[in-house]
Automatic annotation (TrEMBL):
Pfam families: FtsX
Source organism: Paracoccus sediminis
GO cellular component assignments: plasma membrane
Protein's UniProt keywords contain Membrane: yes
Keyword annotations from UniProtKB, A to Z: Cell membrane, Membrane, Transmembrane, Transmembrane helix
Compartments it resides in: Cell membrane
Protein known as: FtsX-like permease family protein
Annotated transmembrane regions: 261-285, 306-339, 359-378, 399-420, 426-445, 719-739, 760-786, 806-826
Length: 841
C-alpha cells in the first residue's frame, strides 16, 4: 500500500487533466442535494424558532362549533400571562347593491383587543390593529387581503357586508403574523373584530367555525405543565392543544416531505452524474494503458494497480464532494435575501452540518458505485494486451469481492436515502424507479448500438453516405452511445415524469373535476332555512340536481379505548372531521362490509365508516370509535364500511352516525348544486340575498386555487429536474470532448477518401441526433410508465398520455446532443488530413 500510495501521489502531480467532467458531475450532484437540504433545514429551523409567532402565542387551545364557556375562559386566563381569542370561518363578502353586487368567498378572522400576542400585523396604510378594527361613521372596521379587495372592486373607505352586518374597509392586510398556523384557506383573508360579528348572523348554533385561545406563558410556567393541566381540565370537552414547539404542524410536515422529495430527485441527478463519473474513469484508465502495462511488466500485482487508481479516484472524489458541499452550503446563503422576501414562512439561513453531511454521504457512495467496476477491471488485464493497444475494457468480469462491494455500496445508498427520508416508501419507490429507468436506458442504448451496426450495412443505405457513416459511428462502442443515452435519458425521464403528472393533474382540476363535481357547495344552512333553500333551487330552471345532508364536525378521540394520538398519525385522526347522520343509506351508497341499521333504529350509537380509511387505520366492523362532537364524547360501534369517493367533488363523509345518535344536537346542513354555467351567477345572487349567512363555495374557484398550489409544486420539482438535466448535459459535453480526437482522425480519413466538409458535418450531426432521439424516446416511455404508476396506484386518478409533453422531451434530447456534438465538431472539420495522418505514423 505504501508503494501504491507513492505511485498514486506522483501521478496526481500531473494535474487534473481528464478529471474535469468527473469533478463537475460530482460537485453538481452533491451541491444540488446540499442546497435543497440546507433550504429545508433553514425552513425547519425558522418554523421551530418562530413557532410562537406562527401560532400566535406560546400555546393554543382550539374548539369547534363553540366559544369557551365562562368557566373555561376563566381557567385559561388564570394560567396565562396574556390571553387572546380568535374565531375563524368562511363566509361571503358582498360589495355593492343587490343588482350589481360583487360576491367573493373569504376566510374571516375575528380577533379581540389582545391580537396578535406575538409578531406584528402589517397594513396599508400603516395603522395599529385597534385603529383598523375601530372603523368609522358608526360602522366596524375591517382589513382585507389585496387580492380580495381587487376582486370585489373596493377601495379603502368603501363598505361591504358579511352576513347582515356592514363593515367599512379601513386598510389592506399585507401581513398576518399567524397566517401559516391557520392552514389552507379557500378564500383570501378578511380581518374584523369578533364583537362586530355579534349581529352578523354568521355565528349561529351549529354554524361551522373554530375558536382558538392563544396563551403566553406566565413567569416560571412551562409548556409541558400547562399542557398536562389543560388535558386534565378539558378532558372530553373537544379541546385540542397545540404549542409553539410545533406552531404550524401542517406547514412543517409539508416542508419536510417536499424537501425529502426534492432531495430524492437530486439523487436522480447524482445518478446521472455517476454515469459521467464512470465514463471519466474509463477514459482516464484507457489513457493510462502504457503506464499500467509498464507497471505490470515490472512485476506490479493486480491489487497494487487497483490500489493506485483507487487512491487517486478516492482523492478526487473527496475533492469533488468537498466542492459540492461548499457550493451547496453557500448557495442558499447567497440567495437568502431574495428567498426571505418571497417565502410565506420564516427561514433562518445558515450552514447546517446535517444536510451537508447527508449530501457528502450520497456523493461518496455514488462515486464508489460508478467507479468500482472500471477500477476492478484493471486488475485482470494482461500486460501483453495493453501493449497491443487494447484498453482496459478488454478485462474480464470483475472478481466476486468487487461485485459484492458494488452491491453493498448500492444497498448502503438506498438504505441511507430511505432512512433519512420522511416517507420511506417514497424513497424506496423512487430508488426503484431510478434503477428501473437506468436499466431501461442501458438496454435501449445497447439495442441502439446493435441496430445501428446492422443498419450501417443494410443495402437501403447505399448512396446515403452521411447517414451510413452516422449509423456506423453510433454502433461503435468507442462513440459513447451508452453514456449519452444513460445520462441525458435519466435527466429527461425525471423532467418528463414531472411534466406528465403535472399535465394530468391540471387536466383533472381544470376540466374533469368541474365536469363531475357540483357547481356549488353551500354550507351553514340552518335547519329552518333548508325547505326554503330547496324550494328556491327547485324553481330555477338552470339547476339540474341538489343534494343535502346534515353536517357537524367531530374529533376522533379514541379507537377501541386507545387514545387516537397513540393509535397512529393518519389524516383522519388529525384535527376535526365532517360527521353526518342518516336513518337510511344516502343515495348511491355502496357497502363493502356489514349492514345498514334499520330506519327506526334507536339503540346504542352505530357508525358507518369509509372503507379505504378504515383499512388504513386497521378498523373493522364491530370496533368502537369515540368521536367528540360539541364537547360530548359519543362512542359508536362500526356497523358497516362503505365506499367514499372524494374525487367526484360531491358530499362525502368518512363518518355517518345513526340519526338517533345526534338527535337534538345543534347542526347545519350542507348542499351541493349541479347547475348550468350560465345560471351560476343568478343562483349565487338569489341565495346570498335571501340567506346572507349561507356561504357558497364555487368549485371552479377552489379548483383554480388548488391548481395554483399544484403549479408551484410542479415548478419546484421541475427546477430540481433541471439540475439533473444540467448534470446530464455536462456528461454529454464530456463524452463529446472525449471523442474529439477520434473524430479528428475520422474526419481526416473521410476527407482523404473524397468526403466533403458538408458530408462530414452531416454525419456528426446525424449521430448526435440519433442518440438524442433514442434518449428522448426511452425517457418519454419510462416517464409515461412512472406517471401512470404514481397517478393510478398512489393518487388513484385516471392517467392519459400527454403527447405534447413527450414530443417536447424528445426534441429536447435531440437539441441537447446536437449542441454538445457540434461544438466539438469544429476542430475535426478544420483539421488538415495530411498533418493528422502523418502524426499517426
Amino acid at each position: 500500500m505504501i508503494a501504491a500510495w507513492r505511485i498514486a501521489r506522483r501521478e496526481l502531480r500531473g494535474g487534473l487533466s481528464g478529471f474535469r467532467i468527473f469533478l463537475l458531475c460530482l460537485s453538481l450532484g452533491v451541491g444540488a442535494i446540499a442546497a435543497v437540504g440546507s433550504v429545508r433545514a433553514a425552513l425547519e429551523t425558522g418554523l421551530s424558532r418562530q413557532g410562537a409567532v406562527l401560532l400566535g402565542g406560546d400555546a393554543e387551545l382550539r374548539l369547534t362549533y363553540r366559544f369557551a364557556e365562562p368557566a373555561e375562559r376563566a381557567w385559561m386566563a388564570s394560567r396565562a400571562g396574556r390571553l387572546s381569542e380568535v374565531v375563524d370561518f368562511r363566509s361571503m363578502a358582498v360589495a355593492g347593491g343587490d343588482a350589481d353586487a360583487e360576491r367573493a368567498l373569504t376566510q374571516v378572522k375575528g380577533v379581540d383587543g389582545n391580537w396578535p400576542l406575538q409578531g406584528q400585523a402589517q397594513f396599508d396604510p400603516p395603522l395599529p390593529v385597534a385603529q383598523v378594527l375601530a372603523g368609522r361613521d358608526g360602522l366596524p372596521g375591517a382589513a382585507m387581503e389585496p387580492l380580495l379587495i381587487d376582486r370585489l372592486g373596493l377601495a379603502v373607505g368603501d363598505r361591504f357586508r358579511l352576513g347582515v352586518q356592514d363593515f367599512v374597509l379601513t386598510a389592506a392586510l399585507l401581513r398576518e403574523p399567524d397566517a401559516a398556523g391557520s392552514g389552507f384557506g379557500l378564500g383570501p383573508r378578511t380581518l374584523v373584530a369578533t364583537e362586530a360579528l355579534g349581529q352578523s348572523g354568521l355565528l349561529a348554533p351549529g354554524t361551522l367555525y373554530e375558536t382558538s385561545y392563544r396563551l403566553t406563558l406566565p413567569a416560571g410556567g412551562t409548556l409541558d405543565g400547562l399542557r398536562a393541566a389543560a388535558m386534565a381540565e378539558f378532558d372530553g370537552a373537544g379541546m385540542r392543544w397545540r404549542d409553539s414547539r410545533r406552531g404550524a404542524p401542517g406547514v412543517e410536515r409539508f416542508v419536510d416531505r417536499l424537501g425529502s422529495f426534492l432531495v430524492l430527485v437530486g439523487l436522480a441527478g447524482l445518478a446521472v452524474g455517476g454515469v459521467g463519473v464512470s465514463s471519466a474513469v474509463r477514459s482516464y484508465l484507457d489513457g493510462k494503458t502504457a503506464v499500467i502495462a509498464t507497471l505490470k511488466t515490472l512485476g506490479a500485482e493486480g491489487r497494487t494497480i487497483f490500489a493506485v487508481y483507487f487512491m487517486q479516484i478516492g482523492a478526487l472524489t473527496l475533492l469533488g464532494v468537498g466542492a459540492g458541499v461548499f457550493l451547496g452550503g453557500l448557495a442558499p446563503l447567497a440567495v437568502a435575501p431574495l428567498l426571505e422576501s418571497r417565502l410565506p414562512i420564516p427561514a433562518e439561513f445558515a450552514l447546517y452540518p446535517a444536510p451537508l453531511a447527508e449530501s457528502a454521504l450520497y456523493g461518496t457512495l455514488t462515486a464508489l458505485i460508478f467507479t468500482l467496476l472500471p477500477l476492478a477491471r484493471v486488475e485482470g488485464v494482461r500486460a501483453a494486451a495493453l501493449f497491443r493497444g487494447i484498453g482496459a475494457d478488454a478485462a474480464a468480469r470483475p472478481r466476486g469481492p468487487y461485485l459484492a462491494g458494488l452491491v453493498l455500496a448500492a444497498a448502503a445508498l438506498i438504505g441511507a436515502a430511505t432512512a433519512l427520508a420522511s416517507v420511506p416508501r417514497l424513497a424506496l419507490g423512487l430508488s426503484a424507479g431510478v434503477a428501473a429507468a437506468l436499466g431501461a436506458l442501458w438496454l435501449a442504448a445497447r439495442g441502439l448500438r446493435a441496430l445501428a451496426r446492422r443498419l450501417a450495412r443494410h443495402p437501403a443505405l447505399r448512396g446515403r453516405t452521411a447517414l451510413r457513416l452516422a449509423m456506423g459511428a453510433v454502433g461503435n462502442p468507442q462513440e459513447g452511445a451508452v453514456a449519452v443515452v444513460l445520462s441525458l435519458g435519466l435527466g429527461l425521464t425525471v423532467l418528463a415524469t414531472v411534466g406528465q403528472i403535472d399535465a394530468n393533474l391540471r387536466r383533472a382540476i381544470a376540466a374533469e373535476l368541474p365536469e363531475r363535481a357540483p357547481s356549488f357547495f353551500f354550507i351553514d344552512i340552518q335547519p329552518d332555512q333548508l325547505a326554503g333553500f330547496q324550494d328556491r333551487l327547485a324553481a330555477d330552471p338552470g339547476v339540474d340536481a341538489v343534494e343535502t345532508a346534515p353536517s357537524l364536525r367531530g374529533i376522533i378521540t379514541a379507537i377501541n379505548g386507545i387514545p387516537a394520538r397513540e393509535w397512529g398519525d393518519h389524516w383522519v385522526l388529525r384535527g376535526d372531521r365532517g360527521v353526518s347522520h342518516a336513518a337510511a343509506p344516502p343515495e348511491g351508497t355502496v357497502l363493502t362490509e356489514g349492514d345498514w341499521w334499520p330506519a327506526d333504529y334507536a339503540g346504542p350509537p352505530l357508525l358507518s365508516f369509509g372503507a379505504e380509511e378504515a383499512g388504513e387505520l386497521g378498523l373493522a366492523v364491530g370496533d368502537r370509535v369515540t368521536v367528540n362532537i360539541l364537547g360530548r364524547d359519543i362512542t359508536a360501534t362500526v356497523a358497516n364500511l362503505r365506499q367514499v369517493d372524494f374525487r367526484s367533488g360531491g358530499i362525502g363523509f368518512v363518518m355517518i352516525l345513526d340519526a338517533a345518535a345526534l338527535k337534538g344536537a345543534p347542526q347545519t346542513h350542507i348542499a351541493t348544486v349541479q347547475a348550468d354555467a350560465g345560471a351560476e351567477g343568478r343562483i349565487l345572487r338569489d341565495i346570498s340575498n335571501a340567506y346572507p349567512n349561507i356561504t357558497a363555495v364555487r368549485v371552479r374557484e377552489v379548483a383554480q386555487r388548488v391548481g395554483e398550489a399544484m403549479a408551484a409544486l410542479a415548478s419546484a420539482t421541475s427546477l430540481a429536474a433541471m439540475a439533473t438535466l444540467a448534470t446530464g448535459f455536462v456528461v454529454l459535453i464530456g463524452a463529446a470532448a472525449a471523442g474529439e480526437r477520434a473524430r479528428v482522425f475520422e474526419a481526416a480519413v473521410l476527407k482523404t477518401l473524397g468526403a466533403t466538409r458538408r458530408q462530414v458535418l452531416a454525419s456528426f450531426a446525424l449521430r448526435s441526433a440519433l442518440m438524442g432521439a433514442a434518449a428522448g424516446l426511452v425517457a418519454a416511455g419510462v416517464a409515461a410508465l412512472a406517471a401512470w404508476t404514481i397517478l393510478t396506484q398512489v393518487m388513484e386518478m385516471d392517467y392519459r398520455f400527454v403527447p405534447g409533453s413527450a414530443l417536447g422531451i424528445v426534441a429536447g434530447g435531440v437539441l441537447a446532443t446536437l449542441a454538445a456534438g457540434l461544438v466539438f465538431a469544429l476542430r475535426p472539420l478544420s483539421a488538415r488530413p495530411a498533418r493528422v495522418l502523418r502524426a499517426k505514423e
